Amino acid sequence: MNIKDAGLRVGLPPKTIRYYEDIGIVTPDRADNGYRDFSDAHLHKLAFLARARSLGFSIDDCRDLLALWEDQDRASGDVRAIAKEHLAAIETKIAGLQDMRATLADLVQSCAGDARPDCPIIDKLQRG
Amino acid sequence: MNIKDAGLRVGLPPKTIRYYEDIGIVTPDRADNGYRDFSDAHLHKLAFLARARSLGFSIDDCRDLLALWEDQDRASGDVRAIAKEHLAAIETKIAGLQDMRATLADLVQSCAGDARPDCPIIDKLQRG
DNA sequence: CTTTGACCTTCCCGTTACTGGAAGGTTTAT
DNA sequence: ATAAACCTTCCAGTAACGGGAAGGTCAAAG
Known about the structure:
By secondary structure, chain A is mainly alpha-helical.
């Protein structure tokens, strides 16, 4: 299967798939004309990647997950460790964003937002 | 004032301040020896930047905010518009991360995380 | 007076995970 | 025969810096 159809099948743009090949994550076969040729196994792997990425796993995480996926005898604890670490990172990020949101929401609410020049938002940014 | 002390004063690493000069946000004076020389006005501007960045405003947002800050007659509505848009972006990001967190938390909880090979996390990534 | 160490300068590369675009070859449909 | 729609590789750019090299400057200590 050519790259465009492969992309449609797994929900990734061709550019992204080429990139994944560049960095050594997938290695499709090549047809005689030089075109990439994706087998079912390749598509399966790409779909796995797409799902892991959509859950926010980094490419490096994905490498590890793929290795574990392909290892029939790995311990589920190894997989869980990666997921837990990622979960913790996400929670840290959420907390940071929630702090920002609270401060910003305060500022936005305190500002009249009309044609007059006095603006508590600027005041706050100015004076800390 | 030299760059390191300026950085200590406003809470930014020298590298970051040089970067801000590179992209045209601040333009400190230069001493005879070529060293950057930061005035109170420069420090004030850098502090403003640091605070806006810490609230997650992009550099481009900061450019706009700085222009408004320096315009005594700007309408507070213009400032508020930027802040509101940023607030909306943050809320979108939080929602996306919360989705991820929910899915991941489910996965992590469903996985025994022991030495056995069967792992619901991998299963889910595999089958969608 | 020299030396050491802490500054400072510019410049270039690396980061994340792609995306856009150019130049050119191949295949398919008209 | 030609045009559209693929495909290929390669190069460059994104956001916002950080690391590190090569070299100039300055203040204090010996």
